[in-house]
Amino acid sequence: MLAEWRSAQAKAKKHCYLSARENEKMQDQVFINKPRALSDKETAKLEAKCKKTQEAVRKAEGEYYTCCTKAERSRLEWESTTQRGGRCFHALEQERLEQLKDLLSKYYICFRDYCPKLCQAVDRLVEPVSTCSVDADLQSVSSLRDSAPTFAEQLLPDFYAEHMSNVMNRERRKESLERCLHWVRSDLERESRGRRGVENLAKALQESPHFGGEESQLEVHEKLLHLRSMLAFLEMTRVKLHNSAYELEPVRYRKVDHPLFKYLSVHKDKQGMMQSVLKLPHWIDNEDIEIELIEDGRGTGDGNSGQIDSDFDEFSSQGSDGEVSSHTVIQRNGASSNGSSSTSSSSTTTTTNNTAVMVPSVGKCRALYSYAANMYDELSIQPGDVINIHDKQADGWWLGELSGTVGIFPATYVEEV
């Protein structure tokens, strides 16, 4: 505010000075022209100009004076406000320093009284800290983890039509069982193909002992365990549904027995509905489950056989557990990479810490047409892609690697180079 009034004061002063000079010029002109005989008209004109300039001077001086007084009042108000602010800050600073002094005194008293006790407490911690062993503690945790069962109990789906104690029309029960069997068989075939893809990758790793680190081998092993567990889940669901269909139509179906039947228990839950629980045995870690599959739904490797439609897809093997496990190129340090491989003239090379590891390759091929993967063990290719071939399967599907991704692709879509 003070700066604004100072600016207005300067402008008013300048205007006042200009008006005064203009008035003086006009008065001098009247004085010079007095000896001369002027007409009444000229005299009236000069007098009007003189009055006008005199009025302008009075007005400019009044405005200038007003600006000066208001600027001074504003300065006095600013000065008073500044002094009050200074006194306020002084009081606040005094209060802050007094509180700091009081806090410092309390700290001093605290250290004086409690430091000896704290030193004694620290001395008592010497033995526990020195005897602390991270390895021993982790070993006990590892022992508990290793002693726990490998697989949890599996809650198998129990459809309403599956249990004959539930009242249902015969034809609708038959239709429901056939529909559920179709879902389970489709997912069972998909999981079986996924297991074969992971087993192909595991076989490639076994044929090259120096390819891949310990963590990478463990990752493939865990994926196989997950696939076996999922296959057991689907296979026992299929067997249950099949035997229910046998009870309904013994002529059309045959009763199926399975080694996992003795690990299956059926009871009623709190709502009075049937619930089947499968407790997987430990031998499932190393043994494959006997699966009775219908005709392979992938078809020949011509790229035209699509994925089997299934209303059960949202629970199928293509979920998070089916993410591209066989599509991983393993580095020697145990890390997984999805694009860190470089292609040489005869094989794929993965370089880690300046150490090159050669992946077995039986040749190279160039993609002629584009192919989008329909299943998670397949490889998407585009025209012009150069693929390293690892295996040529009899059904027309080849196993290969492209840009660090391993999977199968139709042989009719490529040409060897």
List the helices and strands and how they pair.
Layout: H1 2-33, H2 40-131, H3 134-147, E1 154-156, H4 170-207, H5 214-248, E2 264-268, E3 274-278, E4 329-330, E5 336-337, E6 341-343, E7 348-352, E8 355-359, E9 363-367, E10 386-392, E11 397-402, E12 405-410, E13 414-416
Antiparallel strand pairs: 1-3, 2-3, 4-5, 6-7, 7-8, 9-10, 9-13, 10-11, 11-12
Helix pairs in contact: 1-2, 4-5
Mean pLDDT: 77
Estimated share of beta-strand residues: 5-15%
| Biggest sheet statistics | 5 strands, antiparallel
Task: Look at the helices and sheets and give the structural class.
Answer: alpha+beta
Q: Can you count the beta strands?
A: 13
Please provide the ordered H/E string of secondary-structure elements: HHHEHHEEEEEEEEEEEE
Shape: elongated
Helix content: 40-55%
Gyration radius, rounded: 48 Å
Give the uncertain stretches in residue-range form.
293-300, 304-359
Q: Note the total helix count.
A: 5
Protein name: SH3 domain-containing protein
Domain SH3: 360-417
Region (Disordered): 296-353
Biased composition (Low complexity): 333-353
Structural account:
The protein is α+β, with helices and mostly antiparallel strands and 417 residues long. The chain is 51% helix and 14% strand. The chain is built from 5 helices and 13 strands. The strands form 4 sheets. Strands 12-11-10-9-13 form a 5-stranded antiparallel β-sheet, with helices on one face. A 3-stranded antiparallel β-sheet has the order 1-3-2, covered by helices on one side. Helix 4 runs antiparallel to helix 5. The two termini are 86 Å apart. One of its GO terms (cellular component) is plasma membrane. This is SH3 domain-containing protein.
